[in-house]
């Protein structure tokens, strides 16, 4: 009876791995598809805060392709290290979108709005090791050291122009 169950469990484990691999590539494709509208329609919503030219498109496409490569490398390294932290994959789209906005920013307010969500994700990544007190300390330090310059920057914008 145990001999008959063994090949079935091996087959189900291999099918689970293939399903996980398919799901990983599907997530990567969906992330790329989620960033694609930013290449074409961002200028319509923001009153010329973003620049549209061929170099901007080239840099944005290069960024999306490198993000897809990064995600696929993350999946491979997570398998090798037996590391189950879905937070990293969930946190990748927000900095990617922020970088897409930052590439095409034409105004310093747009640049600020692009940098701020990106920095918040990096604070979370810095504090991601839950069992390490150094990681928690690093995350809180980055949050505090990032909040003060952000507040000072916003207070300085009220008397100046924001054109780059």
Automatic annotation (TrEMBL):
Topological category with respect to the lipid bilayer: Multi-pass membrane protein
Keywords assigned by UniProt, alphabetized: Membrane, NAD, Translocase, Transmembrane, Transmembrane helix, Transport
Keyword Transport: yes
Residue ranges annotated for the NADH:quinone oxidoreductase/Mrp antiporter transmembrane domain, each copy included: 105-156
Keyword Hydrolase recorded: no
Record field: transmembrane: 21-43, 55-78, 109-127, 139-157
Record's subcellular location: Membrane
Record protein name field: NADH:quinone oxidoreductase/Mrp antiporter transmembrane domain-containing protein
Organism: Castanea mollissima (Chinese chestnut)
């Amino acid at each position: 009876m145990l001999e008959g169950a063994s090949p079935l469990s091996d087959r189900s484990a291999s099918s689970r791995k293939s399903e996980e691999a398919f799901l990983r590539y599907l997530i990567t494709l969906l992330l790329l598809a989620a960033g694609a509208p930013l290449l074409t329609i961002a200028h319509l919503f923001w009153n010329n805060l973003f620049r549209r030219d061929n170099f901007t498109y080239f840099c944005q496409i290069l960024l999306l392709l490198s993000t897809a490569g990064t995600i696929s490398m993350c999946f491979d390294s997570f398998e090798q290290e037996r590391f189950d932290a879905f937070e990293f994959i969930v946190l990748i789209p927000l900095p990617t979108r922020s970088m897409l906005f930052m590439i095409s920013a034409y105004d310093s307010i747009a640049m600020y709005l692009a940098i701020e969500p990106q920095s918040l994700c990096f604070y979370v990544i810095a504090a991601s090791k839950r069992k390490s007190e150094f990681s928690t300390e690093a995350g809180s330090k980055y949050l505090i050291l990032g909040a003060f310059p952000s507040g000072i920057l916003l207070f300085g914008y009220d008397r100046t122009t924001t054109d780059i």
